[in-house]
């Protein structure tokens, strides 16, 4: 099972909250998880990332993650500002918010699995603004199978949302799950390389 | 007190698994401890802690009087007044907020006011930085407050509750700082167990009014009288106060140990109250840690053991008063030790904890080599790789190659 995840986004999109909800959902399934965000002065739009480590037993190391097995990016423009693939472990899974096709994305050659979803369009329909965190939690669940939609929903019920209600967020994770396209990269885009 | 709203998440009837960060864990511990007065001013990385407390008061779950003061000097001054009226009190601060709090801060221990104040530790300015480091807490290590450092989110929750019992104990009556690292603990989310509210009530008992100093119209007295110098009572009066204050600090070692034993019996979590020894009994060398770096340190010890290297770890939980006997006992088991500080002592070109360990060694039968390491400043990470370097340097020191200046762990990060 994948155990080190890095989430990327921009301040205001709920990246840190998503990591917390994911930790809660994994705990609902009896797992142990820690989530450590990294950000500075609170500022909308600034790059934010969060690290999540999950295991079947208690986790002691409260450290950042340098070689993630899973990279989640909830913002479709962030890749132009920061290298979201830095340190990626070989064979990693990528879960990306994007309108592009896999062939148009400049993906690292050693990535092996890709979950792709037009999260901004879903968020604009549901929330009237590009808050993509819940959509991308659904996409993560679909792409990795590491957490169930039911656990995510239970974790959401205990969370505080600033920009939308619980029902909208539950709809967002469901649509993120349903509308994510999952590709095995060995057989798709890297076949052209 | 106002009628409180029952809340099964914050005041559970039985122990409950939750997921939260260290700031929320501290706030939840405060709810369980039922303080009378909480005074707050936000400062990164403490802000979400006092925002939680404000929310809990607004929701009617925490029955405390909440004072939104205009700055930290007023925060602590207000709590001094509340303490003098016999209230159980709490606040939290960090870095620049602690600096602004300094004048009432230094008076609080001498007044023997049993407050609990979380320090969400942050590196001191300048240069400008908003990230974790223990320089703020270390800067006030000689002010007479009890200082306790936590390893993980669960320990934050448990220790904030225990701190009230320590502060209010009749043999202590001193303010307590429960320190948790900015970033890694303030915002680090993990799975923790909330103790049942009723069991916490039984554990803490009735809040002990500090009748040594609490104002009582039936017992009029002067508080903080003029002492020493040419004041009434002369030099002896000041010495008397100081001597009893120093004795109370020493008592805190015993009282905190007893409190931990009781916590373990009631809640099943057995934290080491003073220093924790991890895989130390047959160790050749040890690393000494403080705060949230400890978990990665323990994992690094396990990795070294897997390589066949006999390494142990000594975690400092109670830092003020310094548990010198426990430290000497731990150090006596190894041939060399490394101290990993998350702050600096400007005076000694080492870390403050290193300085304390050197002093403890003076009371040890064997003067073992020490390696001073400084890491984790301004939010820097202390990883397993860093600890592997610490361990390698310590084995070299055991062989006689002792570095004369600190090893700066993040120098090239």
Provide structural commentary.
Chain A: InterPro entries: Oxidoreductase_gamma_subunit (IPR051626), PadE (IPR054811), PorC_KorC (IPR011894), Pyrv/ketoisovalerate_OxRed_cat (IPR019752), Pyrv_flavodox_OxRed_cen (IPR002869). Chain A: Pfam families: POR. Chain A: Keywords: Oxidoreductase. Chain A: Residues 11-178 form the Pyruvate/ketoisovalerate oxidoreductase catalytic domain. Chain A: GO terms for molecular function: oxidoreductase activity, acting on the aldehyde or oxo group of donors, iron-sulfur protein as acceptor. The complex is a heterodimer of chains A (193) and B (413). Chain A has 193 residues and is of the alpha/beta class. Chain A has one domain: Pyruvate-ferredoxin oxidoreductase, PFOR, domain III (Pyruvate-ferredoxin Oxidoreductase, domain 3, 3-Layer(aba) Sandwich). Chain A has 5 helices and 7 strands. Chain A has a 7-stranded mixed beta sheet, covered by helices on one side. The model of chain A has no long low-confidence stretch (mean pLDDT 91). Chain B folds into 2 domains: 1-273, Rossmann fold, CATH 3.40.50.970; 277-408, 3-Layer(aba) Sandwich (Rossmann fold), CATH 3.40.50.920. Chain B is built from 13 helices and 15 strands. Chain B has helices spanning 22-33, 47-58, 72-84, 95-100, 102-110, 135-139, 153-168, 197-204, 234-267, 294-306, 324-331, 352-362, 384-398, and strands at 16-21, 37-40, 65-68, 89-93, 116-121, 146-149, 176-181, 189-194, 275-278, 285-290, 311-316, 318-320, 336-341, 370-374, 407-408. Chain B has a 7-stranded mixed beta sheet, sandwiched between helices. In chain B, helix 11 (324-331) crosses helix 12 (352-362). The relative contact order of chain B is 0.11. The interface between A and B is medium-sized, with 24 and 28 residues. Strand 2 (32-38) of chain A pairs antiparallel with strand 8 (189-194) of chain B, so a sheet runs across the interface.
